[in-house]
From TrEMBL:
SUPFAM superfamilies: Outer membrane efflux proteins (OEP). Its main location: membrane. It comes from the Bacteria. Keywords: Cell outer membrane, Membrane, Signal, Transmembrane, Transmembrane beta strand, Transport. Pfam families: OEP. Gene3D superfamilies: Outer membrane efflux proteins (OEP) (1.20.1600.10). It is found in: Cell outer membrane. Residues 1-18 form the signal peptide. Belongs to the outer membrane factor (OMF) (TC 1.B.17) family. The keyword Transmembrane applies. One of its GO terms (cellular component) is cell outer membrane. The lineage of its organism: Bacteria, Pseudomonadati, Bacteroidota, Flavobacteriia, Flavobacteriales. This is Transporter.
Length: 432
């Protein structure tokens, strides 16, 4: 049996070295570079960054060039005050105006300044949303990576089951040949071997599908071959108080709620700006020329500078201003409620996840002991089977107990790692 296990380990190791070694750090690095959701969130942030400008807030003047040309052909008739009548068919009248105009709002009740500050907050919102997207995708990559590790460990356990079942078939045949066992014992051993091989193929299918999904998350060739680490080790040093402190200052969902409150407060400032007068200045240099086939002046031209000041103030708009301010204040109250709700929800998730984390750490230790016990039981059972002092049912039970112990141990390690990653994601401090 030990010889078979050595051969199996050698073949597995040879196949592993033939493929690229992929660490969880490498998987995350590839995902950060290629993942489509992260790229989209990064582009959204670039848009927010471009929106932060004095011009977009309305602080800069507008300068425009204008050109207007009108041409018409008319049958005209004019009667002067002295009774003289003039008429002309197909009279042509042309005019052209062109120039440069500048308009600048120099005061709008501080709305433009509030708008500029709001654009900065929206940029921060984009940065926080990008961080949240990164945390979510890195979380997905890490959990999928550790799931591949778990699937790999389960494959090894099923490999071991096949080796043991193969040895049972060989032993049963030898016992049948020398007349110490019935044909039924050989058939039972063969059925168990076939069952183990079926389980192995099903597990291999799941293993390969999980690897494909990991390639999808990393946004690379879905058929890329790789091998992962042999085991999963969870960080057992996490403290609930530290995690809650980190979450209050770093959790992206809480930060998004806080930023939305500042955005709402700046929106109220913009609404209140309508109570103040709006003052602007205008200036420009205009060229005007016209031609007329009929009239006192056949040609006319002018050019020159124009300038002026515009001012307006809302005196009454049916109490809409008061309504708009009330709505803006209610929106601020809603953001306060959302902050409290989000903080409460995150803290609740942290407490529940931390209890799960502690349970999973205990299970890791317990299942590791169970593997040792199941291995000793299997070794003793196989030795008794060789000398014919135990039934095949007892052998199969010991074999399944060992495989199940390995599977539970692998699952416990994976669940502990999942709990660790979940806690760090909630704290907004996911690291390796």
């Amino acid at each position: 049996m030990k010889f078979c296990l050595y051969i199996l380990f050698f073949l597995f190791a040879a196949n592993s070295f033939a493929q690229d070694q992929l660490s969880v750090e490498d998987a995350v690095a590839v995902a950060l570079k290629n993942n489509y959701d992260i790229k989209l969130a990064a582009n959204d942030l670039k848009i927010d960054e471009q929106n932060v400008s004095l011009a977009n807030a309305g602080l800069l003047p507008n300068l425009s060039g204008t050109l207007t040309q009108n041409n018409n052909i008319q049958n005209s008739r004019q009667t002067r005050t002295d009774g003289t009548v003039q008429s002309l068919d197909n009279a042509r009248n042309n005019s052209i105006n062109y120039g440069v105009n500048l308009g600048w709002t120099i005061f709008d009740g501080f709305r433009m300044f509030a708008r500029y500050d709001q654009l900065k907050e929206l940029e921060k919102l984009g940065q926080t949303e990008l961080k949240f997207t990164i945390l979510s995708r890195v979380n997905d990559v890490m959990l999928t990576y550790f799931n591949v590790v778990q699937q790999q460990q389960m494959l090894k356990a099923l490999d071991t089951a096949i080796v043991i079942s193969t040895q049972r078939v060989t032993t049963a045949k030898n016992r049948f040949t020398i007349g110490k066992a019935a044909k039924l014992e050989v058939l039972n051993a063969q059925v168990d071997l076939n069952t183990d091989q079926t389980n192995f193929l099903r597990q291999k299918e799941q293993y390969e599908n999980t690897k494909t999904f990991l390639n999808e998350l990393m946004a690379r060739d879905l058929t890329s071959k790789f091998v992962v680490a042999d085991s999963v080790v969870a960080d057992d040093k996490l403290k609930l108080a530290d995690l809650m402190n980190l979450a209050n200052g770093q959790n992206p969902q809480i930060q998004i709620a806080l930023i939305n409150k500042r955005v709402a407060e700046l929106n109220l400032k913009q609404v209140r700006s309508a109570r103040y007068p709006r003052i602007g200045i205008t200036t420009g240099y205009i060229f005007a020329e016209s031609e007329s086939s009929l009239g006192f002046a056949k040609e006319n031209s002018s050019r020159g500078l124009n300038y002026g000041v515009t001012a307006s103030i809302n005196l009454f708009n049916g109490f809409l201003q008061k309504r708009n301010e009330k709505i803006a204040k209610i929106q601020i109250e809603n953001t306060d409620v959302l902050i409290q709700q989000q903080t409460q929800a995150i803290n609740s998730q942290l407490i529940s996840a931390y209890q799960t984390y502690l349970t999973n750490l205990e299970l890791v230790q317990l299942e590791a002991k169970n593997v040792d016990i199941a291995k000793q039981n299997l070794d003793i059972t196989m030795e008794k089977y060789r000398i014919g002092t135990i039934t095949t049912l007892e052998v199969r039970t010991a074999q399944l107990n060992y495989v199940n112990a390995i599977t539970r141990n692998s699952t416990a390690q994976y669940n502990a790692k999942v709990s660790e990653v979940a806690l760090k994601v909630l704290a907004g401090n996911l690291s390796f």
